[in-house]
Design goal:
- With 181 residues, the chain is an alpha+beta fold.
- It has one domain: Aminopeptidase (3-Layer(aba) Sandwich).
- Helices cover 34% and strands 32% of the residues.
- The protein contains six helices and eight strands.
- An eight-stranded mixed β-sheet has the order 1-2-3-4-5-6-8-7, with helices on both faces.
- The longest helix has 15 residues.
- The relative contact order is 0.12.
């Protein structure tokens, strides 16, 4: 059974997660008002005041790549990621947002979800993946750097305002895939 709202819009199932009943990863490229509401609620729960609203999500759905980790049986969003293509380097994707539901953190689903997305980006022709991460976000740094293999390329001081410092990190997708076959 598909996530009901996804069934009604343009989507592509990327992968069912092996060994975990009812979890699937979808790339969605259309919108339903119910799904948009579910995505905004999920984002508000994860990011609070800095969350995207409908004015941010609609352009991402139309012009970016948005992926959902869903529980098919409960029709719930458990994870979400959005990507944009870099205008100066069309082979580079930028991970705009990435989150896993708090109750699922620490269960390796963040790693599983991101590895699925990296493989899909490779299939779409991307060669490099870039992201920014808070210098104090230790769990994210462990995932991106230690588990996946992102490399810091520079430090961006005050990226999102005073004392909002971020590492800019990059992953060579082809090298990642060779190392993880």
């Amino acid at each position: 059974m598909k996530f009901k709202e996804i069934e009604q819009i343009s989507h592509r199932i990327v992968k069912n997660i092996d060994g975990i009943e009812s979890l699937a990863v979808y790339e969605v490229s259309g919108k339903s008002l119910r799904l948009l509401k579910d995505m905004i609620e999920f984002w508000d729960t994860v990011f609070g005041h800095s969350a995207l609203d409908e004015f941010g999500f609609v352009p991402l759905l139309r012009h970016g790549n948005v992926y959902l980790l869903t529980n098919e049986n409960k029709n719930t969003v458990l994870g979400m990621a959005s990507f944009m293509r870099d205008w100066s380097d069309p082979k580079m994707a930028y991970l705009f947002d990435y989150a896993i539901a708090e109750e699922l953190q620490g269960m390796s689903l963040g790693y599983e979800f991101l590895t699925i997305l990296i493989r899909d980006l490779a299939d779409l022709g991307f060669e490099t993946l870039q992201l920014t991460v808070d210098v104090n976000n230790k769990p994210a740094l462990r995932l991106y750097s230690d588990k996946i293999g992102f490399n810091p390329v520079r430090m961006s001081m005050n990226e999102y305002g005073e004392n909002e410092d971020r590492y800019i990190m990059e992953l060579n997708i082809e090298e990642y895939l060779k190392e993880n076959e």
